[in-house]
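Board notes, transcribed. Complex of a protein with tryptophan.
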Amino acid sequence: MPQKKSTPAKNGATPAKKRILTGDRPTGPLHLGHYVGSLANRLKLQDEYEEFILIADLQGLTDNAANPKKISENVLTVMLDYLAVGLDPAKVTIYIQSQIPEFTELFNYYLNLVTVARLERNPTVKEEIKQKGFGSSIPAGFLVYPVSQAADITGPGAHLVPVGADQLPMVEQTREIVRTFNRLYGETLIEPEALIPKVGRLVGTDGGAKMIKSIGNTINLSDDADTVAKKVKGMYTDPKHLRVEDPGTVEGNAVFAYLDAFDPRKEETEDLKTRYRKGGLGDTEVKARLLEVLEDFLAPIRARRALYASDPAQVMDLLRMGTEKTRVVVQETAARVRKAVGTQYF
Ligand code: TRP
């Protein structure tokens, strides 16, 4: 808990260190896109902030009700990915959404502060509805998950939400709910801000706008060396770059996008770009360099993952402790909410 004694805040909720909250649906292994979009920021900020990370299993169920095993079994997968990239359980509090019923209580209050029309306008939800092919059978829980996400964020009293750009509408909607709540019931909740990485989001291995598990254009943090090599070999480059001598295009070329994101030796990437543009540099050579870069990045992640994976009971214990700690905080928020609304009867 807060190391320094906190100065009393307006609503009694501000801790000594500012709080961060973010998380993921446990629908499968995390990939390089998650790293660039969110995990890198979480790592950078784990010293400076009091950081909470949720594994959003209830949100995962909103479009997987008939397949709950997919969600419950991936809780451990995602937790191992967190630990593997270097999130330190001594600094970061990681917890499971469904094990804290007060989130659902907050969600219930917030649902009345949002219109169905507003939910239908949420661009991320709109796109997901299209992408998932719900047609006219959108699960009600899916349509309202941004409201549940507002509970995720306000429950631990987060100031900052480090997420990828696609999550910006969720934070925006949370801010609206907070403002409405505070206006109707008095200053109670903290209005959070999104923290979006400056680097653009990582394209898929097929050159598509982003990595999407169901499309199969991802490189997972847990992929073994052979899998990564195969995926890099099949990566999208410049379709017009047919012969080594031909001048090639760097823009929109996935291999160069990954080098930009992961090669710590920037001059070397720039040199490769120059040579590629001029002609005389083959895709095979650029891909070989990328593989080297990705292996340098992934090898320590794999090693750390293996270490934790050898003792799943200990990993689940970390989750249990993180959940217990978070629940105390969310219970405090729920108590303040009840008091503000006037539903604290006894
Ligand atoms: N919607 C996020 C995703 O799909 C996961 C999530 C749930 C989340 N609750 C959150 C992210 C709260 C940030 C804050 O990845």
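The pocket of tryptophan is lined by residues 21-25, 54, 56, 59, 149, 152-153, 161, 163, 167 (CB under 6 Å). Confidence is low (pLDDT under 50) at residues 1-10.
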